[in-house]
Design goal:
flavoprotein; 27% helix; metal ion binding; binds cytidine-5'-triphosphate; metal-binding; EC 6.3.2.5; globular; multifunctional enzyme; alpha/beta; 223 residues; binds calcium ion; two-stranded antiparallel sheet
Length: 223
């Protein structure tokens, strides 16, 4: 497996990447979030820039430094990430969804801090929009790549998501029990309609480069 970026593999292409978690407010000082360091998405963004792409990174709250040559747009909630992504998706050649988006948000977040002495709140949750699904519905839209973090039956669940969301590719990894989140070595099972390939285990930075190489190959093979 090529672990190095092919120089120029994405020259002239605009690549939009979502990365990191989202935060869904409960009140003025609390939120619901996902376990995500943003490291995988930022590694993919760095690799895409190295491959010659113009990269726009829509980032949830993370401690990651912005990779050189990457335009970063910071967002907090899934709703904001959806708006930031959808407003730019039709003008992009590829959209890669690496973000761990909260599936639900609190229906009526309190604008002040909820006090301990108050009646214990029960949170009503409502579904967030599915960002990559909406991107994949754009007619003559960009090449779409999703991620699937799974705890079990990784390949089956990932293939279901590929088909169900109408994506061009999906990169699946196993999470839980010290795997996937907040660890540096990872393995990706990359699936597309007519094939699949395993990359790793390797550090997320190398994984990002190998994934971008594979995405570049599939992108050029289908367009
Ligand atoms: N995703 C997204 N918008 C959402 C939820 C997920 O764009 N509101 C994207 C993720 O960035 C990822 C892919 O969809 O690329 C799969 O995310 P995942 O959480 O694994 O799947 P879900 O469809 O949310 O299903 P579930 O959480 O039930 O497994
Ligand atoms: Ca989800």
């Amino acid at each position: 497996v090529a672990a190095l970026t092919v120089p120029g593999a994405l020259t002239g292409q605009t690549v939009l990447i979502t990365a990191g978690p989202t935060r869904e407010p409960i009140d003025a000082v609390r939120f619901i979030a996902n376990r995500s360091s943003g490291r995988m998405g930022f590694a993919v963004a760095a690799a895409a820039a190295d491959a010659g792409a113009q990269v726009i990174l829509i980032a949830g709250p993370t401690a990651q430094p912005t990779p050189p040559g990457v335009t970063r747009i910071d967002v907090e909630t899934a709703t904001d990430m959806h708006a930031a992504t959808l407003s730019r998706a039709a003008d992009s050649d590829l959209v890669i969804a690496a973000a761990a988006v909260a599936d639900y948000r609190v229906a009526r977040p309190a604008d002040r801090k909820v006090r301990k002495a108050d009646t214990p709140p029960s949170l009503e949750l409502i579904p967030n929009p599915d960002i990559i699904r909406d991107v994949a519905e754009i007619v003559d839209g960009p090449f779409t790549v999703g991620f699937a973090a799974e705890t079990h039956e990784v390949t089956d669940h990932a293939r279901d998501k590929l088909t169900d969301k109408g994506l061009d590719m999906i990169a699946a990894n196993q999470v839980g029990e010290g795997r996937g989140f907040e660890v540096s070595e990872n393995t990706l099972e990359v699936l597309w309609r007519t094939g699949q390939q395993t990359i790793g285990p390797m550090p997320k930075e190398r994984l990002g480069r190998a994934l971008i190489t594979l995405i570049g190959e599939r992108f050029h093979a289908t367009r």
